Amino acid sequence: MKATKRIWIRSAFGAAAAMALLGSAWAQGQPVKIGLLATLEGPFAAGGADGMRGAELAVKQRGGVVAGRKIEIIKASSDAKPDVAVNATRKLVEQDKVDIMVGPLSGGEGIAVKDYSKTQPQVTFINGGSGAQATTLVNPSPNFFRFNTEGGQWMMGLGKAALAKGYKKVMVIAEDYAFPYSQVQGFMAEYCRLGGKVPIKAWVPLGGKDYSSVIAKIPPDIDAMLVVLGGADAVNFLNQYEAAGGDKPILGGSITVSQDVLNYRGKRRDSLVGTLSAGPYADSFDGAEWKAFVADYQKTFPVSAGGFPSPSLFAYVYYVNMKAALDGLAAVNGDLSNNQAKYREALSKMVLKTPNGDVRLDANRQAIGTTFVTEVVKDAQGNLTTRVVSKVDNVDQMLGMKKEEFAMGSRDVPSCP
Amino acid sequence: MKSGAAAAVATPVAVSIAHPARSASNRFEAMRSAVSLRHVVVLAGVLLLPLAATPFMLFQVVAQSLVLGLIALSLTFLGGYGGMVSLAQMTVAGIAGYAVAVLGFSSATEISLRWPWWAAIPVALVICSLAATLVGWLSVRTEGIYTIMITLAIGVAFYYLVLQNYSVFNGFQGMREVYPPKVFGVAWRDPVPFYYLSLGCALAGYFLVRWVVGAPFGIALQGIRDNPRRMNALGFHVVAHRVAAYALAGFIAGVGGVLFVWYNGLITPGSVGTSWLINILVIAVLGGMKHPIGAFLGALVFVLLQTFAIDLFDRERFNLVIGGVFLAIVLFSPDGLLGLWEKLRLRLGPAQRLSHNSRRS
Questions:
Q1: Which residues pair with A225 in a beta bridge?
Q2: In whole angstroms, what is the distance from residue B203 CA to residue A321 CA?
Q3: Quick one: A378 and A240 in the same domain?
Q4: Least crowded by CB within 10 Å, which of A170, A192, A304, B179?
Q5: How many domains does one find in chain A?
Q6: Closest Cβ opposite residue B173 in set A83, A86, A108
Q7: pLDDT tens-digit profile of A387-404?
Q8: Same domain, yes or no, for A231 and A346?
């Protein structure tokens, strides 16, 4: 009787132990939930969909599994409004209980999500495509990482290239919010230092339809215009400027001549040829990793299935950030325990291999990376594409300034009339 | 106002009346008999909800519904009882939200005046009530579709004002870090406190509307809705009643606007853009304009769809679900969810009208 009882107890213990072992093994193999937020609605809907493709590509390259743990992507959409982005993020974090969050896409959203990330210390937030300087410069959040360079960094090298083309006086036409402020600062920081002049800046509202008052203000003695307008705004401006008989050369912001603008099928798109611009990637860069990335994108998302002829800016930055999330996960062997402490340390110290070279993070968890200066050219098939003029490595957020003399870009900063 | 009440009592046939006028002595008795088990259960349910719901459901779904419902309630009051459909209710709410951000604290330190909350909030509510009065004063001389047009124009004008003005409204970027004050040591933006805060405001708004539409002013307002010329002939000042209704609705929307800016923690031009102007109308129509509860029901359905539609359907096309559900509700029940509810009741049990401001001709 006694013996049977003991056997019973022993086997119960044994079963419990086995269960515990199985349980921990099961925890090890549990899927990692990653939230993915991009703008599938609103002004950046096309860019947002391509951003999602970029992120999906990074997951696909790992076969959907990292360190034995399946990667489960849960998507959400916003319309480029910060309140909508926070609502969507909150749903992913608090309702769907994601472990890692990738997104959002635009600057204002990025700042709002960074603010929200402070209230959720158990989740690691990795940026998607947003490029506002303030996200990592003002009150940075300890669990918000950004592996893409931002708007200011994207313009380094353009000032030098503009002066090399003989543009000594440039007018700025840009949308009136944080991202274009950063872009203009990135350009002017270098351009003004090397002796260029910016006599007049025109800040136009986002989503403007009528640019006639701006076009009327363009002084006759400038050499070129820096146009930092996105998507439909850029197309509207270029159309109206051509119609008004304008012929000044154009310097483009990073999203002015992105693929979705180059794809524009209007009659006047040829006027874009010769346009200089700068950004974190270049269609025609001939690095082997970049070519492999483009080929993989084209194979995975052929034009017939809605993909672009070559990956857009948003596809690229979402790819880079998702790749960082997965590489970090691989580096710690899928270990997200202890409030993801090990994972975050791995991310902070990681040297990320991107299609355009290595990316490291600074103390604010902001990328230090490569910027390309490009020129728009027409390829043999008649598609508009870009040619690399120069490549600047290791661009950091201070844009070549000392920390003490650096001030964030705004309507009036910097200034060199 | 006194003469208005007397006239309403004297000519009960001429105007439609929500509740028969009662003398003061039996009003208390009537109130007590109006409270049934149903009310107690609902009240207990909403008070104890935090025990059952996750913080996410409490904050993002229920509290957001209550706040949006409060803004839509102002439209239900104007549209259902006053016969004036205003698209500018979100604008009025946005004015209150911007006022709190400008007078109180926000990330735009060079703009915000850093007034303490007990000064900033009342002044913000006064500002938005005045703004609503102005909107009313501009639009009450119009009827029907022209009211919609003029209030839409006002709303769009305000959107472009805040989008392009930098000295007060900080343009496209708007104001961030607008949080509720810490009063009584409670962090009011935490899910449970914020839920009770919005619940308190929503209940207050609900009972305020219930009370007003039974008061002489509300009865006169419904009379004006049904036959302004006759009310005018009876000696009522039609324009004054309508403008007063706008002012009251503006105050309710303003409270909702302050809560909404706290909920989001920020306000940008997008918060008062055309899509939001129309969303408020969608919420009010979806719930049904015949009873104040409709605004909250509509808001709950709206928020649930906005939050979860993406899980139900193809993630790139989830807006189809949202549009489809809205279309189905309005198509099968022109009176919104309340209309559905009433149909169900008629079929299942003895008729009991939930709508209490229907026209009687």
A1: A171, A250
A2: 45
A3: yes
A4: A304
A5: 2
A6: A108
A7: 899 999 999 998 888 888
A8: no
